[in-house]
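Q: What structure does this chain adopt?
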Amino acid sequence: MTVFRTSLRNFLAHKGRMALSAVAVLLSVAFVSGTLVFTDTMNTTFDKLFAVSAPDVTVVPKTDDDGDGGGGNGPGGGNGRPDTVPAAVVRTVEKAPGVRSVEGAVHSESVTVVDSDNKNLGSSNGAPTIAGNWTRNDLRSMKITSGHEPAGPNEMMIDADTARKHDLKLGDELRTITPTGDVTAEISGIVTFTVTNPGATILFFDRETAQRALLGATGRFTHLNVSAEPGVGDAELKRDVAAVLGADPGSYKVLTQQEATDENRSDVGSFLDVMKYAMLGFAGIAFLVGIFLIVNTFSMLVAQRTREIGLMRALGSSRRQVNRSVLLEAVLLGIVGSVAGVAAGVGIAVGLMKLMSAMGMELSVDDLTVKWTTPVLGLLLGVVVTVLAAYVPARRAGLISPMAALRDAGTPADGRAGRVRGIVGLVLTVLGGAALLVAARADKAGEGSAYLGLGVVLTLLGFVVIGPLLAGGLVRALSAVVLRMFGPVGRMAERNALRNPRRTGATGAALMIGLALVACLSVVGSSMLASATQELDRSVGADFIVQSDSGATIVPQAQEALAKSPDLDHVTQYKWVEAKLTSPDGKTESLALSAADPTYPEDLRRETVAGDLSAAYGKDAMSVGDTYAESHGVKLGDELTVAFKGGETAKLKVAAITSDDTAIDKHSMYTNIETARRYLPADKVPDNLLMFAQAADGKEKQAYAALKDALAPYPQYQVRNQADYKQELRDQVGQLLNIVYGLLALAIIVAVLGVVNTLALSVVERTREIGLLRAIGLSRRQLRRMIRLESVVIALFGALLGLGLGMGWGTAAQKLLALEGMGVLDIPWPTILTVFIASAFVGLFAALVPAFRAGRMNVLNAIASE
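A:
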């Protein structure tokens, strides 16, 4: 109890200094807890929606990949028409024991709905636009709150969320663009979800209109909703339904409500997992930075209590008790910071939900999910990290002998420890640099990635360990440029920064980590952009590219409008055709052939290592990439067996082998669209994934304007010339980097708190010295400037280490990307210099409060302090 009371007294005595460390723990735990609460809430939202909307048993067509019957709604897949179940199967399923009712349903995501101004009413956040027929099963998750269900081809219903966002009302006319044509209808009703709709746009037609518009024919459904008689379980019903389908059970999948829910959940689960683990990764970085803050805090507190520790030892306290006393303070700090962090994390989750709702993904606070594991994990992480960070200072405190502590002599092993530290840091750095070099020279990206990860970890640890040794030289160099112009005040700031290299190194390391990641990602992003731009200039010959940013295929009516556009030399179609390819060595692989018009080699210039690419567009001919050719022993003139999905099997001759040393269409295999049509039924020929166009000589501006006018009724597609495409690449890379920088901002904030804490404790440590400086004539203004300059040079030291380290990581990563066709190394010097200069302002900001407090010290009291 005596040790606990001592720890509590010390904790409360230094509560102001502990507060900043507690904030670091709070922020880190808050980010972890907020991420868990936010993703758990999203999972709850989708789980409720899927569970409520799924019938007792669902019957869907079974596809080759055992999918959900989507039938090519994805990019490169099919003609936008889902796989279907014949209406006759409804009568078959009705005969199964335990079946109360069966209804056929139509569901498609290959639609776009626009208003009278051609504005796309679909979600902008990636949520789908779903069209279908209104069924009794839909009443499980929604209800008609206005108007009535559609009664003919000129009526439709829409969900209330979409109606509210776009100010739609009954009687408004909307146009729905489908793969089979456009459907224009008035809003006859508005449906409201009884659970949360995460942001999808929902349309309902009557059954026959939905079948004709979405499937191209009546008498078919995408799935059947089967309801059970009272007392019949889902598993029993599934067994009986499968039994009556027994003549051809391989054609259908029968799913219970739970199985259908699990399948739907898996579709969004991977996205949520990626987002969750990415955010937790950034929280881990913030934790790592926070460790340096806590280590510095306890190191300085221990140093300032050296004589107190000596008295405790002289009065009989053992090393273990001193050690335990410091660790108990860390436990108290971890508990306080973690409890506050968990509470703040719930607030962060609610804020993220509000932000997502503003962006179009509706998330209700009613679904807020705080699992018991979240606060437990937050508390555990916060306390464990804090105790681990405080262990070294606590152990150092226990090693001080009573007499050495009473005369402030410190630990006798400091010199030896510094030498050992230098050797360990140097070894780690050299090993890490060697791993990065091996990664940069790797022949395969997979092998190089492992060495890259190892190099990043080792060099980071090496720089952290060797930081105090680097501080001497780098701080002097920075001071010569930045501080010397401030005269004596600048020189005093330099000496203060050099007084305790270990402290300066740890403080700079906290900032180093965040800025190293910023520099690395900046180099990678800039290099990817420069490589893609160079590849566009080198490979793309087409003047215009037409595609959907969502990856949807181009509907036939939009293709026709584009083909009729004036001032064009030619238009090239490009499709992905799913097939199974058997090579001469007998190996079979599922892949997608790139089927295009014979003008494609003009629009995309592909280098060949054998043959002529134009020959691949001859009758029953194709090309392969050199990677495939090498791995399967394929040579020019060989015949490959190609089993077209949903069609016939063909023998295609290899007329060209293309180089895979490219970033565009890497590993693609080409054939003529007519070849695909020869072996596929008409209803299985996929729509174009994208299209290229070449302007007639001297007609580029006119053709560009005409294409935009032709596709104006189809806002889901974008017409871009090469300048537009490059700008789109810049925007996409910029948006991605901004998101990453935003997440890294948490680590930067924690690092700033570390600088503030270090300076604040340093001011307390130098109270008497400050009083003496004031007594011999140093003004308050000069004192504040000295502390600010010290902060600036520490921040610049951390920035210099971080930016140098990050550029090394980024350069090694780019060499790996070069194996995937991204061959240009581009160092974004403006970004690097901006970050370096901004670090000086970070230092100024961090020093505001410590400098202000130092300036307010009473001179006589400061001189009299111990």
